[in-house]
Write a structure and sequence with these properties.
- Strand 12 and strand 13 form a beta hairpin.
- Helix 14 (341-347) packs across helix 15 (349-367), helix 15 crosses helix 16 and helix 15 (349-367) crosses helix 17.
- The radius of gyration is 20 Å and the shape is globular.
- It has helices spanning 4-9, 18-21, 50-59, 95-100, 106-117, 144-150, 164-169, 180-190, 195-199, 214-223, 260-266, 274-277, 319-330, 341-347, 349-367, 380-387, 389-404; strands spanning 30-34, 40-44, 64-66, 77-78, 82-83, 86-92, 122-129, 132-141, 174-178, 200-206, 232-236, 245-250, 255-259, 289-293, 296-297, 303-304, 312-316, 334-338, 374-376.
- It is built from 17 helices and 19 strands.
- By secondary structure, it is α+β, with helices and mostly antiparallel strands.
């Protein structure tokens, strides 16, 4: 059985907070804190009850990404893109929300539609902390204004499941928005806790290429010309346009900004936690609906990061998610257009090959006897074949070198 300390030490922790969130009583055995490495990590403060420890081993998304009985054998399961009912491009019909959000506001449009219809009472989502602009907080959004304020990517650690017991113990129905690993953890919890399906009306994810540490944000600020984190009075990683700029305002009244390709591609993605590098589900396979950047393509079929009107890839993963997207369209909250799986692969080339890369990296871990997560029903073997032997071998050897240098240990 995998316990919290083993999961952390093996580099498998994603920082989601679920291990702390499923605790009970007034004296929590596990709390989430910012660690010295710049990520969110669980800290054991009391002996962990046997039942909580058993549940952690079963539902922790750092240690498990496991589909149900059908998984990759389900009829609607695409080996690369997971369960897909319908694929669309879409954006919020609200021009201000479309501009404020990172990817056209497709996800935010669905949330505001659910709140407007009364189908949910509130949304659990991640937002910038009001008193700490460089840090994230988990926010309860009860109206369109809250959703608007929380729109936009937050390329920093978050633990949206650390308080999930309080929500499940309540009487309201809510929607949950999180990283793919957050949603996978909540879906796995649903298999052993019936309150999840009773209280969580919808689960939403956004495609994720990994979580940078707080040190990554600090490095980004230095590249932007800001000498000290404490100088920042407001900060956003993206949005206010698409893809938008990383933008920081300082106490001196100055505004600094950096384009998306430079901020994410040049700085932040150098600070990803190890667990993200062996993640097979950057695409939110366990969500009801998942959204991502629907990049325009150049003549070579490569993504373009010029400023344009934002649009989201919107994948409905089950009948419930599909019905919601159609309802939002009929209500005029969401505008959509068709997109093919081939176009999505060109818009999201990293996600298209990610499962193959993960398979090669896991093979390297196995060769060194390293503890690996338990993955099932994700078509990893097929995706390694799609990657091809030369690329798979190159990735395996590169991972071996990084592991031998100590990567993946905490």
């Amino acid at each position: 059985m995998l316990d919290v300390e083993t999961i952390k030490a093996s580099g498998l922790c994603s920082g989601c907070g679920l291990c702390a969130g499923i605790g009970e009583g007034d004296r929590p055995a596990i709390v989430m804190k910012d660690a010295a490495n710049g990520y969110r990590r669980p800290v054991v403060t009391e002996p962990v009850p046997e039942e909580q420890a058993r549940r952690i081993d079963e539902v922790c998304p750092g240690a498990n990404i496991v589909h149900g009985a059908e998984g990759e054998d389900a009829p609607d399961y695409h080996p690369v893109w997971g369960p897909v009912q319908t694929a669309r491009l879409g954006w919020s019909s609200n021009a201000a929300l479309r501009r404020n959000a990172s990817s056209g506001g497709g996800l935010s449009a669905l949330l505001t539609h659910l709140l407007a219809t009364g189908e949910i009472d509130y949304v659990v989502q991640v937002s910038a902390a009001p008193d700490l602009p460089l840090r994230n907080m988990t926010r309860v959004s009860t109206g369109a204004e809250d959703v608007f304020a929380s729109a936009g990517s937050r390329y920093a650690p978050s633990s949206p499941l650390e308080d999930i017991e309080r929500h499940l113990a309540g009487h309201s129905r809510f929607a949950f928005v999180g990283k793919p690993c957050d949603v996978a953890g909540l879906r796995q919890l649903a298999r052993i806790d019936p309150r999840v399906d009773e209280k969580v009306a919808y689960m939403f994810a956004f495609m994720c290429a990994g979580v940078p540490s707080h040190h990554g944000t600090s490095a980004l600020l230095r590249e932007m010309g800001i000498a000290c984190d404490d100088e920042v009075t407001s900060f956003r990683y993206r949005g206010d346009g698409w893809p938008g700029f990383a933008t920081a305002a300082t106490a001196s009244g100055e505004t600094h900004r950096m384009d998306y390709d430079s901020s994410w591609g040049g700085v932040l993605n150098r600070y990803l936690q190890f667990r993200c590098k062996i993640c097979p589900d950057g695409i939110g396979e366990f969500a009801d609906v998942v959204c991502a950047d629907g990049w325009y393509l150049d003549e070579a079929n490569a993504p373009i990061f010029d400023e344009r009107g934002g649009r989201s890839i919107i994948l409905s993963r089950n009948a419930k998610g599909e019905a919601l997207v159609q309802s939002a369209e009929r209500a005029g909250a969401l505008q959509t257009q068709p997109v093919t799986i081939e176009e999505i692969a060109a818009m999201q080339p990293y996600q298209a090959r990610r499962k193959g890369l993960t398979g090669a990296r896991l093979t390297a871990m196995a060769l060194l006897g390293r503890r690996r997560p338990r993955y099932r029903g994700l078509a990893l073997a097929e995706n390694m074949k799609r990657l091809g032997p030369a690329k798979a071998l190159r990735e395996l050897l590169g991972t071996l070198r990084r592991l031998l240098r100590g990567q993946g240990r905490e």
